[in-house]
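We modelled the chain as a single entity of 287 amino acids. Its sequence is:
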Amino acid sequence: MRPIEKALATIQQTEIFFPCQEDALEEAMDTYTTFYGVKLTDIKHSYGYVMINQQKVFLQSFKPKRFQATILLVHGYFDHTGSMSHLINFLTANGYHVWSYDLAGHGLSGGERVSIDDFLYYQKVLVEVSEKYVMNEYHPTYLVAHSTGAAISLNILTQQPHTFNKVVMLAPLVRSYAWHASIIGKKMIPPFIKHTKRYYRKNTSNKEYHSFVKQDPLQHHQVSIKWLDALFLWNQKVKVYSKSNQSVLVIQGDEDRTVDWRFNCAFIHQKLPGSNIILVSGANHQL
């Protein structure tokens, strides 16, 4: 067992709740932050589990000594807080207090691996984490969400607009790539099949990152059929969501082969007419 695997097992088995006030996880978390490349110089790192709808959610806070705003960072499918270390490091270095949590079934959080019954649960977690931990009356609060995280955010923005002062969506998911083929393919899968193999597309120009993902013990190597069903169901629901005047910055790569970015950008602009969409030439899904 690699040191990181031992550390992750210790964190999951100890189940210390947020904010951790004990030294029991110090060594394990040091291994975690080193492995994922999270820089903690002059950063107060708080972490631990919170219970939401009787399920464990692993929450982390990265707080510089001085900061200008608070950011809630929400990752995408298969990923977790550690996957976003480059962005966390950039934001904390530029004076932002960053909060992030692992989605249900992802990373260190509880739940069936990379699976969900309904995207509504994702929304409930985002709302509860925001209201109980992230919101600070003394600083503006921003939301930065990638892929599936952006899909979850779309629920909030259309139903509870202006919860956040500013919102940034990175490669947002509405429909996945080759959407209609996916629907047809799903119908051909026998009901007793619960997972299908994950194919590692070249979704970034960073070769080191691409290799690292395959070795990351918190990644999963199969796609949950239940999660696909939840995505299809959510797509039917989101069609009837009301428009919102919330202003949103969307950053999208034009070489993305993970999401149907042309449809998604048009859909988001329809639901959020004030959105500003920036296309990045040559960029993939992992911006």
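As a brief sanity check on the tokenised model: The domain at 3-280 is CATH 3.40.50.1820 (Rossmann fold). The chain has one domain: 3-280.
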